[in-house]
């Protein structure tokens, strides 16, 4: 039995196989529509989510399975003090696979140690978000044809953004990937990403504060929101939240085949006027997330 707690739990070869399965699912939906009949997914979401929770539910329903679970800690026995270990023990007797989102880093890892079913980390604090990373990789592969020889700009909250941290860790395993890290000084990537991941693996990267100057060289622009829930000081959030806003004027300097990704939800960091630009890929990205989670469920349940 395997779990997915970290994007690196799968080798590059296994990841590529998963992405190919997701593409096959996209192209042959009927082929997979009943493959998980009788199987149940438990969604154990201790903090709010729209896309991740609904995409997991859609994925299992698309496979012919069913879903049970809770959407916040307040609606579970966690509100009564039940531990993650006890919750997963109980859930293991009700379901065949579980997806867990938790505000505390490492909670899905704890759950995996007490679980008798596969556990998928659906986001743990500012730490990891591996299924979003798989979604990002699938999106890049579908739009650019390959995950290689790309300059990837990561813009916004690079300090607390778990999607950014996970994506960097995953992309460095592919050939000739260069990063442009675009953020205010207060929201730069943590030292452990800069030193232990990028520098330690001799990955080419630059850190800048100006999106306008960086955008012409990018093949992928990955926008992120400044996350109010990660701040202890409301004044700091208000001061930084509108640092980067992508609009048509900025896009006029970008390559014609550059694509814009965003893990969503957005607040105002991408102007709605950008939505109709053919380079805006964030809503396609959300759809690709369903296919990649379908592929992951099939892989972990070992039903194909």
Account of the 3D structure:
- There is one protein chain.
- The protein is α/β, with parallel strands linked by helices and 304 residues long.
- Helix content is 38%, strand content 15%.
- It has helices at residues 12-27, 51-62, 84-92, 107-114, 130-144, 162-171, 191-199, 211-214, 234-240, 248-251, 282-301; strands at residues 40-45, 66-70, 97-102, 119-124, 150-155, 177-182, 205-208, 220-223, 259-261.
- Helix 1 crosses helix 5, helix 2 packs across helix 11 and helix 3 (84-92) crosses helix 4 (107-114).
- The chain is globular and about 55 Å long.
- The protein starts with 11 loop residues before the first helix and ends with a helix.
């Amino acid at each position: 039995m395997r779990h997915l707690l970290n994007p690196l739990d799968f080798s590059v070869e296994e990841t590529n196989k998963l992405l190919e399965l997701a593409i096959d699912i996209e192209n042959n939906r009927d082929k997979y529509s009943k493959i998980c009949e009788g199987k149940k997914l438990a969604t154990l979401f201790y903090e709010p989510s729209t896309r991740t929770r609904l995409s997991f539910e859609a994925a299992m329903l698309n496979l012919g399975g069913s879903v049970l679970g809770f959407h916040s800690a307040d609606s579970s026995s966690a509100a009564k003090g039940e531990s993650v270990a006890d919750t997963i023990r109980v859930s293991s007797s009700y379901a065949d696979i579980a997806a867990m989102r938790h505000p505390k880093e490492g909670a899905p890892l704890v759950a995996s140690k007490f679980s008798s079913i596969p556990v998928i980390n659906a986001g743990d604090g500012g730490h990891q978000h591996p299924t979003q990373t798989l979604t990002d990789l699938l999106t890049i592969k579908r739009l650019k044809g390959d995950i290689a020889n790309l300059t990837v700009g990561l813009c916004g909250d690079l300090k607390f953004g778990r999607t950014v941290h996970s994506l960097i860790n995953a992309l460095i395993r592919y050939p000739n990937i260069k990063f442009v890290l675009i953020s205010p000084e207060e929201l730069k990537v943590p030292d452990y990403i800069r030193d232990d991941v990028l520098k330690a693996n001799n990955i080419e990267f630059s850190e800048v504060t100006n999106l306008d100057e960086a955008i012409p060289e990018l093949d992928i622009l990955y926008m992120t929101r400044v996350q109010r829930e990660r701040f202890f000081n409301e004044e700091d959030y208000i001061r930084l939240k509108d640092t980067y806003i992508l609009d048509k004027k900025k896009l006029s300097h970008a390559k014609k085949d550059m694509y814009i990704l965003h893990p969503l939800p957005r607040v105002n960091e991408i102007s709605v006027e950008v939505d109709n630009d053919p380079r805006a890929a964030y809503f396609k990205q959300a759809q690709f997330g369903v296919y990649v989670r379908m592929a992951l469920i099939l892989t972990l349940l070992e039903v194909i």
